[in-house]
Amino acid sequence: MKLIDILNLLLSIAAGFFGTIWLVMILTNMAIPDENLIVWNSGVFSNFSFIAFCVEITLIAFALLKLIELGIIYLVKKIRNKADELKEKINKDIDFEDGWQKAVGLLIVIFVVFNALLCYFVLVDNTTFTETNIIKRSLINPIGTTYNYSDVLSYDVDDDGCNNAMFVLHMKKGGTIKVGYSDNMGGAGNNYEKTDFDYLVRIDEILQDLKVKKNIKCSPDDFAYYKEQKTNLDILMK
């Protein structure tokens, strides 16, 4: 691989990563309310969208960089009176047959539909925890189902397997809702970003005020950073 290709690839990966973060932030700001927000978690399809956006933006960035590279090469060759030679090579390598416009049109339609679906996944596949309720959205229920904290029958405090504390809420009407699970992207409200578990402590306070049963299924030994987060973890596990 040429040095220029390696450089293009590195720049494309950086563009894909940071571009995806920027895009997802815009989409989630549209979907997640700021008012009274404690924390929000994404679903499986939102996680898939993040990866898909990252790959897609990387490929687009790489293609654009290659076009810029080819454009520069073309201009250099033109200056050197080799534009005819380059044109002949391009025409030889690319066969512009009848109907190529339809193929391009089809690719554009596929691109638009695919990205519309990805945006839809990010916008609706999430669960938000506010000071007053829990809203669980899904692909088939974009408006979402709203639960009060009084709808929680009990909740487990556990380790998610990656040294992160998490809650598993068992609902009175059946089913569970997880919060703090590391496999689910998400973000905390502005008032709960000081330490890793501020948002769990707040949810714990709300549930304890409602006398909801708490089941402790982890110990301080499960957390490598227990000393740094001792106060919050002690609150969660008492």
Structural features, described:
This protein is an alpha+beta fold and 238 residues long. It is 50% helix and 21% strand. It has six helices and nine strands, in the order H-E-H-H-H-E-E-E-E-E-E-E-H-E-H. The protein has helices at residues 3-31, 44-79, 83-93, 100-124, 198-209, 230-236, and strands spanning 37-42, 126-130, 133-138, 141-148, 152-159, 165-171, 176-179, 186-188, 213-216. The strands form two sheets. The protein has a five-stranded antiparallel β-sheet with strand order 4-3-2-1-8, with helices on both faces. It has a four-stranded mixed β-sheet with strand order 7-6-5-9, covered by helices on one side. Strand 5 (152-159) and strand 6 (165-171) form a beta hairpin. It is elongated and about 80 Å long.
Shape type: elongated
Low-confidence stretches: none
Compute the separation of the termini in Å.
Answer: 57 Å
Overall mean pLDDT stands at 79
Order of SSEs: HEHHHEEEEEEEHEH
Largest sheet, in brief, is:
5 strands, antiparallel
Strand order, biggest sheet? Answer: 4-3-2-1-8
SS field, number of helical segments:
6
Into which percentage range does the β-strand content fall? 15-25%
Number of strands: 9
Structural class: alpha+beta
